[in-house]
């Protein structure tokens, strides 16, 4: 008779695919950062539905990211943080109320356990339940939102939730303090009038792409660091803030955005801020080209984790 195979479970079974091979765990104890997939989209875009597949695509492309960054972090920063991947929230895309409740609860368990949750969208609407979760621990939350759109449109009383109103809800629910909170990279056409005026009425500061380029990187980043110093910050990075030439696979592309190098430099110059929760959203794999948007989203996630690591030094 053939002797039984005595391989260990680790050698025999392939674990679930996680971001950069991080350990899969839903218990936050001992972790200072945690990936949380939020595979939700509202399904309301007329022809670009697919961001619900974003978390899987980002994890797949994260295999191209190495653990060491010789210029900024020549150590295994993710291991030093005890970073985990908590998998995806179990939800049903397009069922906003119940999905948002599940996302909020999953994120709250992580943040209350001492981890900084980094959510993977999904479309931009997932920022709302993630903000809700963080605000339960950090009531004076500042929003730092990079996007080509404000996502602070007037809320339709009949249809409460879509991917253009999450930060209107956050302000109206007093989940964030709009004074000293920013929407950055705004540009392009909109579906409604008065979008910027409405966002300013809510109390937010706006920096359009034109203003960012006119003022210059150093001036804008100096303002952000000065204004947000000492405050708990929710960082939301919508991938359509990038130009479609480097991030084509997004829900609502708009020409004239940041290049990949510029986005990476922005994140690196946010060092010193107290980022208590974050998300990277709007990767839409059906519209991507050879996974390049998901790859860039994975790189941005790694940079966000390095920011969190540097804050814990």
Summarize this structure briefly.
With 313 residues, the protein is of the alpha/beta class.
How does this model look, in words?
This protein is α/β, with parallel strands linked by helices. It has one domain (28-153, 162-311): Arginase, Chain A. 34% of the residues lie in helices and 15% in strands. It contains 11 helices and 8 strands. The protein has helices at residues 9-12, 54-61, 77-81, 96-112, 127-135, 166-172, 195-201, 209-215, 217-228, 260-268, 292-311, and strands at 33-38, 84-88, 116-121, 142-146, 182-186, 205-208, 232-238, 274-281. Strands 2-1-3-8-7-4-5-6 form an 8-stranded parallel beta sheet, sandwiched between helices. The radius of gyration is 19 Å and the shape is globular.
In terms of DSSP E residues, the strand content is 5-15%
- Give the class from helix and strand content and strand pairing: alpha/beta
CATH class: Alpha Beta
- Helix share, percent: 25-40%
- Elements, N to C (H/E): HEHHEHEHEHEHEHHEHEH
What best-fitting shape do the alpha-carbon axes yield?
A: globular
Q: Kindly state the number of beta strands.
A: 8
User: Mean pLDDT, rounded to whole units?
Assistant: 94
List unreliable stretches of 5+ residues.
none
The CATH homologous superfamily is termed Ureohydrolase domain
| Count of helical regions | 11
Query: What is the CATH fold-level name?
Result: Arginase, Chain A
Strand order of the largest sheet: 2-1-3-8-7-4-5-6
* Main sheet specs: 8 strands, parallel
């Amino acid at each position: 008779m053939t002797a039984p195979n005595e391989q260990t479970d680790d050698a025999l079974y392939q674990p679930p695919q996680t971001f950069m091979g991080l350990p899969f765990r839903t218990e936050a104890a001992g972790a200072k950062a945690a990936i949380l997939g939020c595979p939700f989209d509202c399904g309301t875009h007329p022809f670009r539905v697919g961001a619900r597949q974003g978390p899987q695509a980002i994890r797949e492309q994260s295999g191209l990211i190495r653990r060491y960054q010789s210029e900024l972090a020549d150590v295994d920063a993710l291991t030093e943080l005890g970073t985990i991947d908590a998998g995806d929230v179990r939800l049903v895309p397009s069922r906003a109320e119940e999905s948002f409740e599940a996302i909020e609860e999953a994120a709250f368990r992580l943040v209350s356990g001492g981890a900084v949750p980094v959510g993977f969208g999904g479309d931009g609407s997932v920022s709302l339940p993630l903000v809700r979760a963080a605000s339960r621990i950090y009531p004076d939350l500042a929003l730092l939102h990079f996007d080509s759109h404000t996502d602070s449109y007037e809320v339709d009383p009949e249809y409460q939730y879509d991917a253009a109103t999450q930060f209107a809800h956050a302000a109206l629910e007093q989940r964030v303090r709009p004074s000293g909170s920013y929407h950055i990279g705004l540009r392009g056409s909109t579906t409604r009038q008065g979008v910027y005026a409405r966002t300013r009425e809510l109390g937010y500061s706006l920096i359009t792409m034109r203003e960012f380029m006119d003022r210059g990187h150093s001036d804008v980043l100096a303002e952000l660091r000065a204004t947000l110093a000492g405050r708990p910050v929710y960082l939301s990075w919508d991938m359509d803030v990038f130009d479609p030439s480097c991030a084509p696979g997004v829900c609502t592309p708009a020409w004239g955005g940041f290049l990949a190098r510029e986005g990476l430099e922005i994140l690196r110059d946010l060092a010193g801020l107290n980022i208590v929760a974050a998300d990277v959203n709007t990767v839409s794999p059906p519209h991507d080209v050879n996974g390049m948007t998901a790859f860039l989203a994975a790189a941005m996630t790694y940079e966000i984790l390095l920011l969190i690591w540097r804050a814990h030094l």
